[in-house]
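Ticket reopened. Same input as before:
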Amino acid sequence: MSKLPVSQEALIQQYGPHLHYAPQEGYTGRDEPDKVVETHCCFCGMQCGIKLLVKENKVVGFEPWMEFPFNEGRLCPKGVQRYLQNNHPDRLLDPLRRVEGKGFVPVGWDEAMDTTVSSIQHIQSKYGKDAFAVLSGVSLTNEKSYLMGKFARVALKTKNLDYNGRLCMVSAGAGNKKAFGLDRGSNNYSDLKHAEVIMVCGANVSETFPTLTYWIWQARDLGAKLVVVDPRLIPLARTADLHLDIRPGTDSALYGAMLKYLVDNNLVDQDFIREHTSGFDAAIDIVKDYTLEWAESITGIAKEKIKQAAQWWGTAKTSFLLHARGIEHHSKGVENVMACINLVLATGRIGKPYCGYATITGQGNGQGGREHGHKCDQLPGNRDINNPEHRKYIADVWGIELSELPMQGYTAYELIEAIHRGEVKGLLSICFNPLVSLPNNNYVREALEKLEFYVAIDFFLNETARHADIILAGSLHEEEEGTVTTAEGRVTRIRQAVTPPGNARTDTAIILELAARLGAADKFSYQSSEDIFNELRIASKGGTADYYGITYEKIEKNMGVFWPCPTLEHPGTPRLWEDRKFATADGKAHFNPTPYRDPGEVTDDDYPVVLTTGRVVSQYLSGSQTRRIGKLVDQYPEPLLEIHPQLAARYGIQQGEIVKVTTRRGAAEFPANIVETIRKDTVFIPYHWAGNKSANQLTPGTLDPISKIPEFKVCACRLEPSGTINGR
Amino acid sequence: METANFYKTEMEFFIDMQRCIGCQACVVACAECETNGQDSMIHVNYVDRAHTIQTTVQVCMHCEDPVCARVCPADAISKDEFGVVHTANTARCIGCSNCVMACPFGVPFKQEKYDLMMKCNLCYDRTSAGKKPMCATVCPSGALYYGTREGMRKMRPQSDPVNHFLFGKEAVTTKVNIMMPKGATMLKVHG
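Engineering reply: fixed in the latest deploy. New output:
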């Protein structure tokens, strides 16, 4: 029974999101804090260093952490305001039980745990172990991610565990594994500094990873050319040397045509290709007809601009290619990633100073979380759950029989589909708000309402958790010790600044008690986060993501350690592939053929306009945290429909007019923001909001066949002006 | 004006508009400074959002001969020995807005809730203690930067810092620099 117990409005009134502002004169004690804690921002994959000021077990402010090498004190508005999630009036202080007609009532931990465990046992005995699923997330530390993976497989004994990185990094991870045999950005960002050409492919750097902007500008100051590929003229593109205004869903056509240009103009590194790669001939055979003219017709980018980009890329001595969700959130996300990697390999510019390639991990621990924890097809150390040797190693570390270790389960969206058709009956979620972040969320809601039992661990009552039967009040980022792995592959330390307020507990304590009550106490007898990390080190040993040589002490001493780090003496690996020994079976980097194909949904007479979705600088992911912080909401209060004036004119849409946007999934209304900074055939809506403001009412559940990432970045829509101007 | 011993006079403030990404980190960070309460003294604005994503960021330029101080009938605005033009003395300010209208950069603004003019004072609490101003510390693109002129020239060899402005016939020299293309020496705003 996972329907809302009372109306949505009543739940919002009690649990928010409410806007939280600091007191006018700041929090008391900011000038004389009890302690100053060096930790990291809780948001994106940059994991900027920040100091939290603590007074009487409350975070009362922040100070820039000038010494942390990636950001040297720099922060974005989310980072500046992140401390306000502490002391927040919406904070859950007790476990809650759903009561029909009343909402949620506080209960004691014993009652909450008893209900949770008996419900899990009831479902699993009636329908089988796999009928209970776990959805986790990578804002969790490495320790908690590892713990969730082990908890699901050892305590719950279910195969059905996946995570919100399925909406984030999986296309890049799969593409990197195919090409390099390893899933990590090949370089740290200091390799940007002397790159002659930087190509940013589908990454709104200045809004989603603002502090990375500084590194790109350092290179530009020294003369680097910047090429930005994006359907919108994003802030980073405004001053770029070249902006390739690509039609959403056509990325691999662009990179395929660039590869052909490099080959035709002898701008490839034949020695590198011959000695260190395989698959080149097949990759170029696929693109042999991908002329600049053809690419222009598919991508909508003028062929002269494509040629210029390819010429710059081909003739540079040093370069760095970055990509993010813009090319990855597609039904061919893995192909797009491989098409980019083909350009890098063709020019042999990898594994050398200022020759770089990296996906930009989106979530705070998007990198480490997927390596060690809760990805349905992986075991710690980035091991393959379908590989018998990998399974044996982890079963031994965990002290279970090989036969007890579940096989691969469903990916995140497939899990929702399995719930929808009644195959999965129970759910535990932590750090995941799928009702906002998954596509076609009307369908997601229907699925949630079919659950027999749903328990959510969270510190705020997010939109998905409103459907829960039991809510276990968990902990914030700053309430536990741990580590995260940044987008660069740098393992850093998260410090506990305060303890959870009220009767809230740490996530770790909650999971450990659940495991014990499920009869697995002997497998979960950690005394500290460091204990968990030390087991993770062993579990990762020998895997591609080898953390064995990383200790808390070493991280603290060096302000982070880059994996792989296989021994205690090893200094870590800031730049991969310097030895030209790739992690593939044959030791070579692999070209992969990427024939162009259409996105999952194309425009037609009924749905003639391309819709793409994305983010704004003041919000983070599903907004569960950032929609509660006053100034971040004030900065961009509600989602706007960005539309080009020519497209607006075709439909008679006025500035600020409410526009009904309809796709094959549903309809929603957004005020128009008429701007010339977007393609004439494309509209854009940021996705951070819930309910009738959610862009994901419209997006399709089309999945990449390999990574199973949903296609958030392209679908077909139609537009109807309402005649009403917003706010009038 | 009492001054601390830690003020580093070799440190200068630089603004580079081409790098501004409009993120408002500086705006929210300014409000976290101890001196302003939760009010920000920085202006970040879209130039013309319909046509461009460009934003501008404006902090007090700390003029050599501050017109805000010249037009103040209450003598509430003062410049110290380091060239920092301080926000209005709260005991003297009469909230007349002369300074608001006179400033060629549009920096001071009237805080109606306090009936006072308020503006950026170069994070005096921080800079006098050897720290960087909050905005220039957090700015994620380097559009706002606090450091030495020599360091800036080395880091950004394609730009030159400029602190001479011509507003029509009114010449203004400022403590704060803006970064302009190499070789530029003055920014002519009108005519």
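The mean pLDDT of chain B is 92. The longest helix of chain B spans residues 149-155. Please confirm and we'll close it.
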